[in-house]
Design brief:
Creatine Amidinohydrolase; 9 strands; alpha+beta
Length: 240
């Protein structure tokens, strides 16, 4: 065991509780977005902000959730090219658009971070993107599971390779980040070790400064800048 570098042997009630809490939070996020799809809350003819508010209200209705650890995002059309930090004007979802949701609801004390893409119309490339996102996610997770010493830099490179192989660019500077209890130490873009990014040369399976196992979100934002659309998919990498 190499000090703070090994997490596979970590066990005990606190670590088990944290892992179970994060998995439970994601299961609620999955249930939330299954209901979003059932009620067709993300739909053409409705503004992005209105859709965001509808999902916020549904989370409260289903789980009593009123807090989100990051801003709620609904993007559509050309807005799907934009990174998280941008704040574009509200836009009505079009009949042939791609749209995506990126939400970070807090369930009890644990953060979920969950993203899904929706395609309207018959554009084959947009539907291909919809299929490629979960496929690349699964391949990225498989790469993580196959190498106990994988670093943020190595996993980013693998995701970038998989995206390019499928004909997409990565639309943001990272492919995921730490996740945990709320409130957690704010993820700072200058702190490469908090992200799956080319600058992170540390092992993803490690402990944080408090001696707790690091848990990760795999976050995929793929874009086709020439055709003017992108898609998004994220959930837990190392759990569930």
């Amino acid at each position: 065991m190499r000090g703070n570098d090994m997490t596979s042997e970590l066990s005990g009630p606190d670590e088990n509780r944290r892992a179970a809490g994060l998995v439970a939070a994601q299961e609620k996020a999955i249930a939330l977005f299954a209901e979003v799809e059932k009620r067709e809350l993300v739909t053409p003819g409705v503004g992005e902000r209105e859709v965001s508010d509808r999902i916020r209200d549904l989370a409260n209705e289903m789980f009593g959730t009123t807090k989100h650890w990051h801003k709620r995002i609904i993007r559509s059309g050309p807005n799907t090219l934009l990174p998280y930090r941008d704040n574009p004007p509200d836009r009505v979802i079009g009949e042939d658009d791609v749209a995506f949701a990126d939400f970070g609801p807090i369930f009890e004390e644990y953060e979920a971070d969950f993203g899904r893409t929706y395609v309207f119309g018959d554009d084959p490339d947009k539907h291909r993107l919809l299929q490629d996102l979960p496929r690349v996610f699964d391949a990225g997770r498989a790469a993580f599971q196959a190498d106990p010493d994988i670093t943020g830099k190595q996993l980013f490179a693998e995701v970038e390779r998989l995206a390019a192989e499928a004909g997409w660019e990565i639309g943001i500077w990272h492919a995921g980040h730490l996740v945990g209890e709320f409130p957690h130490e704010t993820n700072d873009g200058a702190k490469a070790e908090s992200y799956i990014t080319p600058e992170n040369v540390t092992r993803l399976r490690r402990t944080d400064r408090a001696g707790r196992a690091c848990h990760w979100i795999l976050e995929l934002h793929f874009v086709d800048r020439r055709r003017g659309f992108g898609g998004f998919y994220e959930q837990l990498l190392d759990l569930a």
